Amino acid sequence: MENNNQTLTGFFLLGLFPPSRIGLFLFILIILIFLMALFGNMSMIILILLDTRLHTPMYFLLSQLSLMDLNYISTIVPKMASDYLFGNKSISYIGCGVQSFFFLTLAGAEGLLLASMAYDRYVAICFPLHYPIRMSKKVCVLMITGSWVMGSINSCAHTVYALHIPYCRSRSINHFFCDVPAMLTLACMDTWVYEYTVFVSTTLLIAFPFIGITCSYGRVLYAICRMHSTEGRKKAYSTCSTHLTVVTFYYAPFAYTYLRPRSLRSPTEDKILAVFYTILTPMLNPIIYSLRNKEVMGALRRVTQRACSL
Predict the structure, then answer these.
(1) What is the domain count for the chain?
(2) Which listed residue, of 64, 104, 156, 282, carries a Cα 20 to 30 Å from 146's Cα?
């Protein structure tokens, strides 16, 4: 009975910030990053919506990436900030499940979407004449829908399992959000089978897409080297290097965290790595895509001039 009451009561999130001036500094920094991520991703979505020159498959996928990042960081930071400000680190059993579900859905969907964006660049550079057919509006919609659906199915399976295992140890989760592997350390049963499923799902949604992205960009770089136009080569290289930067920031810490066995993981290291793919990446994506993309900067100038004239 005691175990069941503990499970139904909820959990405590130990958080990211230490109770010191350093913790306050980190809190202010995270809030600034959060606000920048909100502004940057919302601006990117609105810009792509308003400027007709950006109504292409590449920017359609990019707008979805911004939407995912917007929801991604909003799933984590507001609760973390509330815990720090009010000192109430508790989270209900259902609340923990909801946060875990949205986090895993968005994480899986973004991993697959980045692979779709790599395929888009691969077709555009290696098969430019086939691009309108291979990357039609219907194909883009299927890619985006598939990313959301696959992410949701994977998330649902993990969340349901996490909510149905018995917890009989401390209810303090040593993390700043309800990360399922961190929750499993509190379970009073052997979870090696589930840990194996985490490895498999991470391989399918993160490792395989990353291998596909690497292979496609190998072909892309080969095609770029064979281009006769210097301007075309510079534009292609700029677009691809931008996407590779985003991919590296997202996939590397995520894969390193979830593909390691529990014996090699530490809570502190997991929290530091989680900051990269839950907080920093959603903030950096719109900055990287805007500053290194002449088309986005041009669209920003056109929309700004239009707004000023009105």
Answers:
(1) 1
(2) 282
